[in-house]
Amino acid sequence: MEIFSEEQIASLISRGVSWVTEQRRIHRPDARPFHDAERKFLEPFWNRDFLDRVRVKEVEKIEIPPDLAAVLLPGFIGITFGDTILLRRSTSNVHFHENIHVAQFDILGVQRFVDAFARGLMSGLTYNENPLERQALELGRRFMENPNVPFDAYETVKSGLLK
Prior knowledge:
Strand content: 5-15%
Distance between the termini: 27 Å
Helix content: 55-70%
Number of helices: 7
Radius of gyration: 15 Å
Number of strands: 3
Strand order of the largest sheet: 1-3-2
């Protein structure tokens, strides 16, 4: 396992925060709100104010800086920049998963989200073992296994982050 100095970690986090902020600035203006059918499917789990803030943009390719590409899963289909989601494929399961990340950004803020994600990866955890990703995967599984059993996803994310 590669050991990173605090200086290397801080540098990666700083670049990550700048990249997330810049990507949101670039993509949010032409991203769209959820369509009515998408909202209908998501509303039992997310409150309306939350869904009103989220924007989605379908893209053919998601550009990742080379130093960040090494820590992200190859072939991923969505990525979240604060309250803005880029998707290569749009499905209700992907919307739900990425909304978990929107909630994490909302609760933690960009700096703390990127810090937590980067430190998880740089500690030797795999992408899916990273606590923020693991939370999104676990809640996504709960959603997929029981899509007719509503729960307050935002509050569930929040209580999980505060543990």
